[in-house]
Amino acid sequence: MPGPRLRVVSLVASNTEIVSALGRADWLVGIDDNSDWPPEVQALPRVGPDLNVDLDRVAMLQPDLVLASLSVPGMERNVERLRTRGIPHVVIPCGGLSGVYAGIRRVGALLNAEAQAEELVATMQARMRAVQEQVSGRSVRRTYWEWWPRPPITAGGPSWMTEVLRLAGADNVFADVERESQAVTLAEVERRQPDSIVLCWCGARKLPDPRLVARRPGWAALPAVRQGRVYAVLEPEFGRPGPRLADGVEMLARLLHPRSGE
Questions:
Q1: Class of domain 8-126
Q2: C or N terminus of the chain, fewer CB within 10 Å?
């Protein structure tokens, strides 16, 4: 038995997706404006964008627990205001894939769904291992990952994207950067000579146009551009530290290694 049902408010899409994947979607009484999955939670009251939550709306929902996050710079303001208002909350961890799994387990413990959390983590890991085995022996793609175009913001070494890329048969060309994300220059990308580029612009509702990359100064000669390996994806399967990262690994492997033997 799940025990007493809590009134839960989620302030970020990844937490909404974790709660739902654990079979506790009916415990949610409010979600942030950016939560767009799964369909069954879309009619819930909204409490504002994940970087600027309306705490008056949160308080009106009388939550037993608010699930917060620090997955994006700026979210710390939500946490500070929750603390000041005395609203019960927990910040769900998310650093790297190990942090993603820890976050799922943390939500499971809070919502009396420990067994479901362990099963979800095991399923994600099994799917990712299967992809890693499928791409084993193929050419490793030296990949530039772009979260934002102006200025270019990329994923650094501590980001879960470095691990996601590795599982999909790629190396992050900025894996040596010691921050989860960092602004870089066009010249810095050019110097690293990626043979694949993936555009995944945060918050974009439609796919970026990969053809625009060739217009950037110096980029037309990049191996990725010359070889036609510039791809565009939407953020939900990559920018959210939750269960859909397994979908992201599978998607990336199909993009970066479309033909067997590559």
A1: alpha beta
A2: N
**Structural domain spans, the chain:** 8-126, 138-256
**Mean of pLDDT values over 90-112:** 96
Identity of the amino acid at 93:
P
For 88-159, where are the alpha helices, taking DSSP H only?
96-110, 114-135
| pLDDT, average across residues 140-147 | 98
Amino acid at 224: A
Asked whether the predicted pLDDT for residue 262 surpasses 50, the reply is no
pLDDT at 259: 73
Residue carrying the six token digits 């705490």: 55
Please count the other Cβ atoms lying within 10 Å of the Cβ belonging to residue 95: 16
User: Is residue 220 packed enough to be buried (19+ CB in 10 Å), middle (13-18) or exposed (0-12)?
Assistant: exposed
Query: What mean pLDDT is reported for the chain?
Result: 96
What does each C-alpha distance from 110 to 33, 64, 67, 136, 191 come to in angstroms? 23, 11, 10, 38, 46
Residue 46 DSSP symbol: B
Q: 195 and 189 in contact (C-beta within 8 Å)?
A: no
CB 143 within 8 A of CB 256: yes
